[in-house]
Amino acid sequence: RDEAEDWVDRIFEAVNKCRPTLHNDEHWEVLQGSGENGVDERSISSASSALSSPERRLSSTDSSETAPPVQEFDWTRTTDLETDALKEAVLYLSTDSEARTWTPLVVSLSLEAVKGFRVQEERKVLWLNNPIAEIRDVVPDVSLGGPAFFKVLTMRETLRFRAENPDEAQSWRVLIRGALDSYLESGEDVISEEPPPVLGTGVNGNLHRLVQHRLKENGQLLGHLYTVPSEKGLDAQSYKCSGCHQQIGPSRGRARLCEFTGQYYCVACHKGDTTIIPSRMVHNWDLTQREVSKKALRLLAQIEQEPLMNLELLNPDLMSHAESMAQAHSLRERLRLLGDYLLTCRSGACKKLHARMGQRTYLLETRHLYSVLDLRQIADGQYGNFLISLVQQASNHVLNCDLCTQRGFICQICHSNDILFPFQFDSTTRCKDCKAVFHLFCKNEKNSCPRCQRMKKYLERDLQDSH
Ligand SMILES: [Zn+2]
Ligand SMILES: [Zn+2]
Ligand SMILES: [Zn+2]
Ligand SMILES: [Zn+2]
């Protein structure tokens, strides 16, 4: 058995050495914020899980499962350009969830939209139309097989494209990002009053800009989400209400402090509504309900389900301070590992789960991003149970799904027939280096990972051979 596994490992390693993907990293540009979106995190994790050999691939009756038909790609464009095209060329669009079949489309990018046309009798027929306003991000997608692949995330779906070559793919990504930037800048004269928060300090950059843009003038307040407000006093705002600019203060109208912005408002703009203040909760674990202005209350309702806060960056120590945060974090991690299975399962199980999540589909894709609603549920003590029910529903699917169980693991220490999954925190453990999964009771602190050991052995042998 060990011999057989050694062969499997050796073959995998040899194949991986030949794969162009892994050696082309220098071609990748670093895209701001995509990691915080959880997008790269996911594609990296799915790529690495595809490389780990202990995944079971049972023989399947469906022959396309093991040997996908070789597809011919034709990159010549025969039709006329759209009049507003910034770029137009043939791209292949993946039409199934596992990216096996690819459909050719003439894709045309303008400042307003990404359109895809099918060519029928040498004429273009509109097949997909995504307004730039609905695009959230454009990122490379290594997991699809190489640097010629990229995906466009829209509010409704993820479009996976294959370009003729890596340079073409990069050119598409740069131009789509450019169109997105120019769309966002077109609204910035309205919202330029507030300086944009520094990226890389826990702010989900792309999403922040998109949400801010959508909020129009209310977007000014969004920066207050991340930092605890400092109250500067009435004179700093010239004794005027921050909302309607009416005179307030001693001997004029009564002034009320908004604990979200740290600014003063008149009694018409501030009705004394109370809510938790996200920044105080994240930085000081302060769950007190505090008074906020009408504007702030509305803003918090508008962005309630947007995963704008990266807790890992804003305050990584929070998990160790608060037990309910530690529980939330552990459940979010399990949900993300379950997402690796559900998001690629062809059974459509994801749809049922998404129905219960509402807009919070990011729960399956990332563990560090939190929305205002997540924080409110934590403060109310409801978040744990909400996540537990999602984890239960998701693991019920994976453990009973023919497709998902094929992607489970076998313990390489005891070699029993149990199928193990990385999200079973109670009974399994995962090697940090090679991602192999073991029974918790088989792998204790003392015995090191057998798979890593074997790899080390081969590496040493290779070194000796080369001398
Ligand atoms: Zn006012
Ligand atoms: Zn499944
Ligand atoms: Zn075991
Ligand atoms: Zn290992």
UniProtKB/TrEMBL annotation:
Residue ranges constituting the Rubicon Homology domain according to the UniProt record: 256-459
List the protein's name. Answer: PKHM1
- Low complexity compositional bias, start-end: 44-53
Q: Does the keyword Cell membrane apply?
A: no
The record's Pfam families line, in alphabetical order, gives:
RH_dom
Gene designation per UniProt: PKHM1
For molecular function, the Gene Ontology terms on record are: zinc ion binding
Q: Supply the source organism's classification.
A: Eukaryota, Metazoa, Chordata, Craniata, Vertebrata
User: Does Repeat show up as a keyword for this record?
Assistant: yes
Q: What is the protein's species of origin?
A: Poeciliopsis prolifica (blackstripe livebearer)
